[in-house]
Amino acid sequence: MLFFQQIEKYKNNTPVLPLCSFYVLPSEMVALHAGMDAQKQLLSYLTGEETTSPGAVYLNKHQLTSGSPLPEIGFFFLDFGHYERLTIKECLVFWKRLYQSSLSVEAAAGLLHLNTKQKTRIKDLTYSEQKRVQCCLILFQNPAAIVLEEWDQNLDIESKKIILALLMKWKKENKVLLMLTSNMETALTASDLVFRITETTVNTVNMEDSADGESAAEGNAFVFTKIPAKVNDKMILFDPPEIDYIESQDGKVLLFINNESFPCGFTLNELESKLQTYGFFRCHRSYIVNLQKVREVITWTMQESRLCRFPKIKWNS
Known about the structure:
Rossmann fold, CATH 2.40.50.1020, 8 helices
């Protein structure tokens, strides 16, 4: 088990990680939806570059300390330094010897669909192929826990499917799997559980299969106290205070949260009624804004204004 206990981090009086505790169990894929600063901070703890203060990080009851990263943790970094002059086979042979692995080079290349390219130099591969080669390092290391930083960023469709299949294999082998991502769709696609880090809290994302959500709605079995949005075949439920603003685009209603948009099945009129008690305001026929998130209001003319927050919103009356 990978356990983060009462960790917290501030830089220049700005919260990077709020005070939080969470854990990842073996054979469980957990995604942590967070910004890049929070991701880098967590990685600095996990790699031993920095000591947690306050709090601690444990892997199977062994505390991680500064300067002594545990070999039982494997990392799939977003930025990875390859030996570009080596061929794939030369690279895999080197890693196999480094970790004294019993896994054959052919088996590792086969899992990542690289058998036909073993004589190709790393520098001549596409970015997606290089990321698949990077996965081979973890295969030879065979760690108890694997931490993946933005694992599918800029990957082609083929490589996403190949690496996702490898993640499923590691899950069956009882690995501890933690994915760090700033993309909610990525978090929902591959994980069993999603945590979302904000400036003040770490919340568990409520997920439901689409079919279950639709059948419950049809039977009027419950009333939504949260606002649902659909991502692929899953439904994610947002607390109203999390929503920055809502916009209608080409007949579709989108929820905007931390610079990401999520499609919602409610109309603007329905959302206006549901969210009025939470401090939301219908400022335009196409917009509803969370007044708690507004930083500044500027009047340009008698007929035009702008609400300013993280993304700037502009509308004409």
